[in-house]
Amino acid sequence: MKRHHIAAVAALACSALALTACGRGDDTTASSLDACIDDPAGCNSGARADGGEITWALDSSWASWNQNTSEGNNAYAAVALVGMWPATGQFNPEGEYIVNEGVFASAPTLVKEDPVTVEYTLQAGANWGDGTDISVDDFIYHWYATSGDASLCEGCDPANITRGSQVESITGDGSKVTVTYKESYHSAEWQYEEVLSEPAHVAEEQGFDWQNDPKDMAAAEDYFSKTVPTWSTGPFKIEDAKVGEHVIYVPNEDWAGETEVTLDKVTFRVIEGLDNITTALRNGEIDGASPFSVNAETVTQLQGAAGLEYQVAGGPSWEHIDLNTQSEFLSDPVLRQAVFTAIDVENIIGRTYAYVQSDIERKGNHLFRNGSEYYTDYLSATGQGTGDIELAYDMLDEAGYKLEDGVLHTPDGDPVELDFRYSESKENRRITGELVQSNLADLGIDVELKSIPDADLGSVLGEGEFDMIDFGWSSEPTFVAAASQYWETGSGSNFGGLSDPALDALIAEVNGTLDLDEAAVRANVAVQQVVQDAYSLPIVDTPVVVMVSDRLVNVRDNWASQQRAAYNIAEWGVAAE
Amino acid sequence: MVVFIIRRILLMIPVLLGATILCFVLVDVVNDPVQDKIFEISQSTGEPVPQSTIDALESSLYYDRGIPERYWIWLTGIGDTNGDIGLLQGKWGPSIEGSAMDIGYEISTRFWITLRLVLFATIASIGIAILAGVVSAVKQYSRTDYTLTFLGFLFLAMPIFWLGSLFKEGAVQLNKILGSTVFQTYGSGTTGFRGNGWEVFIDSLPFLIVPTLVLMLGGYAAISRYQRASMLEVMNSDYVRLARAKGVRNRTVMRRHALRTALIPVATFAPLALSGAMGGAMVTESIFGWRGLGVYSLDAINAGDTFAVMAYVLISGVVVLIGVLISDILYGVLDPRIRYE
Amino acid sequence: MSNTASPRLEAEAISSKERGQWEMVGRRFFRHRAAVVSLVIFILVVLFAYIGPFLWKWDYKIHSEIPSWAAPSLDHPFGTDKAGRDMLGAMMQATKQSLNVSLVVAIGSTVLGALYGAVAGFYRGWVDSLMMRFLDIMFVIPFLVITGALAGAIDTSVRWYHMAIILAVFGWTSIARAVRAEVLSLREKEFIEAARSAGGSDWHIIVKHLIPNTMSVIIVSVTLQIAFAILSETTLSFLGLGIQSPDTSLGLLIEAAGASAFNEHWYLFYIPGLMIILIALTINFIGDGLRDAMDPRQTMVRR
């Protein structure tokens, strides 16, 4: 579950499936967004006209230009900087990893397993758009910035240090750069690690002695936070920008990638609120957007509008109900299993998310998306989420729970009462709560619905002020770090306080291999254990919408990328007549 | 006069201090933005946030201190600071949003955006209100008077957010009929537009018209009733009757004698209306996506961004107080019966 | 002729004394046509909100047998929304909760403001100037910002009574000013002098003599407070800083209707909007009528 920035995308995106629509100027069968169900990486493709401008709306703002720092770690900054950022690569909508063609000549290679040593080969002529080539110093700069080590960067506040703190050394010469990790580093996702961020030579030009002085290093990070990046490693470079408001791109002539850029100008502007975005699109003020939410009202608006297309599909996060294993009643795993069994997930989906996405499916695995090669449904077999009240009641009966006057009592004779918490602005989560309330009423459990002000979700989770809670996790194709973050004893994001030594051991094994397939197999074993623990009940991949003017081609949504539809910005274009 | 102004300005200081203390305590006690921020980061990276980052965040936002100390530092900047805080030294303090968001810069650029919106709306609403008020008064108890009075009541009763949503969607429909995007629905100007003042103004027209109309109708109602009452009072006064009795033409009486005097209350009311409208622009700004002061305060409230809320409270307080002051001064200048010693 | 005229005049004078001040006010009020019509409409709105739910077959909740997005018909005069909610039922509930808020605010803020203003005006001197400085402070604090910040900070969902309390706590300043001005002139009057010499305590004088004599100011401000409260509450709810589910409000209904003013779901947008206008409009007319009726300088000209 790491961030994946993309600046540029390999020409590979013209995948075999889409070949008919790619690269043929006389193409008459340009597909539409409707084709995305069968062809997620090739839909809406078509021949591009030379030139054209696109204005794209972002549904929220960002406050820093430096994605290394905690304040710059923001999904909207990731989209806004998509045209210039030196990402390692990113996943396409089919879940395939594509290396950034503007920076790297090939995928990184594992040259040694113990300690893990990875070699990167730079693209010939990969540069910062200001005449300076990308070099080993830039790799070292990124390491220092994300090390969390005060002797390298004093007073920095990196958003995460999982990789940065594990680097032992970085050496390089010309186009080859070798990263050596510490003994403790064992991620099967070594090839996806981010290794570049800001240009070291710019820091030096600004007078920061970042290599030797950790305070200067922090000052350089601060400088990059506040400075609009005029350098670029991507297909576009920033012509004009204001933090949190807009970014205007023009093509970057020095880009080392091979994909041909046809657009003259791409503008990202912030329009807050789904209604405002839809209205602006209908009014022709913007050409498209891929906001992080969708509601039925938006779909109605889009249906009635001419000249645009839209598609609703599972997005980059997933909904789930978590139980607090530290709470008075739910510390008993039997009650947890019974509660999950009594909840009718299909019914919840039918009355909420199915309104906006008719082909939506129940999510059956915490770590792998439905349809992924590693996906197996371990949930249905256990009866969790089926709404089978009798099965649930039998479990409770066996454990000594009693129904008296229609109220469930613990073996000790206390009546069972639970609360259900959700973010107040999320209508679907409220309805989910109401349906859970009615499901559990059949078990004799009284559920109190308590909404959470949107800004307080973090503190409610952090302080464990809930029995049941409905919220979302990000669902990118990476999974190795996710298991330990969600479920490991004592993890800061293990909000329900699960502590299962058997599970901890399984999670350690996921982290103990460098082979991705093997890690996935082990991760699935951990998933089975979590299902046994009845800790977290997945519901769906949260639907999101992409809406575009039908004059655009090669614009499609990508759940697997934080940049969503902007993941292939180099290929974006205006349809040829 | 000068003494009067200075005295009034000095009196503003304790009022502003009191208002900032009250707001600071209320806003600060109920929010814990650092924790929310940390949760946001961990959700976005999918990895735990290092403790050193949490500590750095707390200390950079001064959340490692108590509320009294935070207020003192915010006000004076005296004490153990990072050198980015202290109102008396011209520093507004750090924003939760991030170090690239300079509160002082945001406030000053957004001030002009809001002023542009409010100035046109207020001028237009005063103009229309004077016209309607005078017509109403001259034709007292006529059908026109009743219609105008009713319209005034109607706009007074109309929630701005409803009117704004209606006009916004109406503009979209009008565009559809016209076949081109004449009216823009979001923002205050073309993204990234650069130019001199006149060019910026011309560029902003498609964005400006609809929200101005909305704000104007909201402000019109109160002033027109004011104007009607003051016009009626003047028309019934002795000197107007005298002028009429002397045989001066009705039109001349109205223009020379009645209207001129009847405008005094409205003129003194104008600065108050302007400063009031700057506060009321919050709704219009948020509907039409103007990045003005109102929306800034709304975002700051939602984020629990105390220093940003304080900056807004201070600016709007100063604007209101100056509005009151100018209004009082105008009253003295325009009305010969009043003298300040 | 003079013989007959004189006793009639006397009779009228006597009987008008018997009618009393409030009856006079009532008579004057009922000559104000717009105010009377408004009063009738407002009473109908109140009945709609508080009695309506007992008479209408649907409540404000989601029912699976209600189709989503049905246009207004006999079964659903105000149509239905997406989730399957009868909008007539929802309107009754929303109107009730918005009225609840505005009535509590009107009464709460008036009691607070009247007491504050009366105390300040009664004691004068440093008490008065201190209390007036505090009013200045309240005046300077932006109303929507501070109420929004407090409502946004409530830990669970914001219910209508949270909103009512917050609006009342910050909405009393105009009444305090008006009452203080009245009291400043009243306190020099003979009957206050008399009450004081009869040994009445300060509190007794304020509550029993001063406040009742400012009743005309207070009654007018109560009515205007209702309009003020309903507009602020719906505005805050629209901005997402006000009432939250499971409670509802007219502002929330409009916010949920979104940009549907010109599409097939137009009724979701116009009906709650018109209800707010109806309430605020009638209240303003009633307030206007009351003011005219209680103003002794008022001539009996029909308006």
TrEMBL record, chain A:
Pfam families: SBP_bac_5 (PF00496). InterPro entries: SBP_5 (IPR039424), SBP_5_dom (IPR000914). Residues 1-20 form the signal peptide. The keyword Signal applies. Keywords: Signal. PANTHER family: MONOACYL PHOSPHATIDYLINOSITOL TETRAMANNOSIDE-BINDING PROTEIN LPQW-RELATED, PERIPLASMIC BINDING COMPONENT OF ABC TRANSPORTER. This is ABC transporter family substrate-binding protein. It comes from Glycomyces lechevalierae.
Automatic annotation (TrEMBL), chain B:
It holds the Pfam family BPD_transp_1. The keyword Transmembrane applies. Residues 111-331 form the ABC transmembrane type-1 domain. It comes from the Bacteria. The chain crosses the membrane at residues 9-27, 111-134, 146-167, 205-223, 262-289, 309-334. It is a multi-pass membrane protein. The keyword Transport applies. Keywords: Cell membrane, Membrane, Transmembrane, Transmembrane helix, Transport. CDD domains: TM_PBP2. GO terms for biological process: transmembrane transport. It is found in: Cell membrane. One of its GO terms (cellular component) is plasma membrane. Belongs to the binding-protein-dependent transport system permease family. This is ABC transporter permease. It comes from Glycomyces lechevalierae.
TrEMBL record, chain C:
It is found in: Cell membrane. The chain crosses the membrane at residues 34-56, 101-122, 134-154, 160-179, 210-231, 267-287. It is a multi-pass membrane protein. Residues 99-287 form the ABC transmembrane type-1 domain. Keywords: Cell membrane, Membrane, Transmembrane, Transmembrane helix, Transport. GO terms for biological process: transmembrane transport. Its main location: membrane. The keyword Transmembrane helix applies. Belongs to the binding-protein-dependent transport system permease family. This is ABC transporter permease. It comes from Glycomyces lechevalierae.
